[in-house]
């Protein structure tokens, strides 16, 4: 039986993915959220963490002279919790290469597109404008390339005819809240790892778009 995987979650805002991770924790289960850290004191996700009895910390990026100084201070706070995994859940900061390398292979992010397509911001509107038939979200290991790290798992949904952006956002968010806890649990159980050639699940290399879920029951 694998020991408990200590997780630190970084947020900047509402924290709906954080809530999904909190809700997925089980007594005696493989995942334990040790702390939630935000660069914004008004992030609602801090209240979510406090309600769940999770330690919270605030580190204001505006108090630092540059990105490097902020990231170094953030590393010190994270490492004080001795986490095996660091999870980005709406953390609206571009991380330095030094930060990413420090947590290489144990830093996950979720992005609202089917990577490698639609990196960056405003993905839902861009997908609708392009007339794409499918959309979704991706959990990936973080590297120095923005939204460019190896994908672990994707959820794919069809774009409905005439769908507006609010409905599409809602549907993608629902998928995010399903696959992020799944990926974190896989990591905690030792099933998901970053290998020399990319993401690996149960010892086997994953394709570039990861483990893809399409209108199916999630695999435990």
From TrEMBL:
A Gene Ontology molecular function term of the record: phosphoribosylglycinamide formyltransferase activity
Metabolic or biological pathway, per its Swiss-Prot or TrEMBL entry: Purine metabolism; IMP biosynthesis via de novo pathway; N(2)-formyl-N(1)-(5-phospho-D-ribosyl)glycinamide from N(1)-(5-phospho-D-ribosyl)glycinamide (10-formyl THF route): step 1/1
Catalytic activity: N(1)-(5-phospho-beta-D-ribosyl)glycinamide + (6R)-10-formyltetrahydrofolate = N(2)-formyl-N(1)-(5-phospho-beta-D-ribosyl)glycinamide + (6S)-5,6,7,8-tetrahydrofolate + H(+)
GO cellular component: cytosol
Domain Formyl transferase N-terminal positions: 6-184
Entry's Gene Ontology BP terms: 'de novo' IMP biosynthetic process
Pfam families linked to this entry: Formyl_trans_N
Alphabetically ordered keywords of this record: Purine biosynthesis, Transferase
Transferase keyword on record: yes
InterPro entries, per database record: Formyl_transf_N, Formyl_transf_N_sf, GART, GART_AS
Residue sites binding (6R)-10-formyltetrahydrofolate per the record: 67, 92-95, 109
Enzyme superclass (EC): transferase
UniProt EC number: 2.1.2.2
Statement: the UniProt record of this protein carries the keyword Transferase: yes
Superkingdom of origin organism: Bacteria
Residues annotated as binding N(1)-(5-phospho-beta-D-ribosyl)glycinamide: 15-17
Active site, renumbered: 111
Annotated site residues (Raises pKa of active site His) in this chain: 147
Role noted for this protein: Catalyzes the transfer of a formyl group from 10-formyltetrahydrofolate to 5-phospho-ribosyl-glycinamide (GAR), producing 5-phospho-ribosyl-N-formylglycinamide (FGAR) and tetrahydrofolate.
Protein name in the entry: Phosphoribosylglycinamide formyltransferase
Species: Azomonas macrocytogenes (Azotobacter macrocytogenes)
Name of the gene encoding the protein in the UniProt record: purN
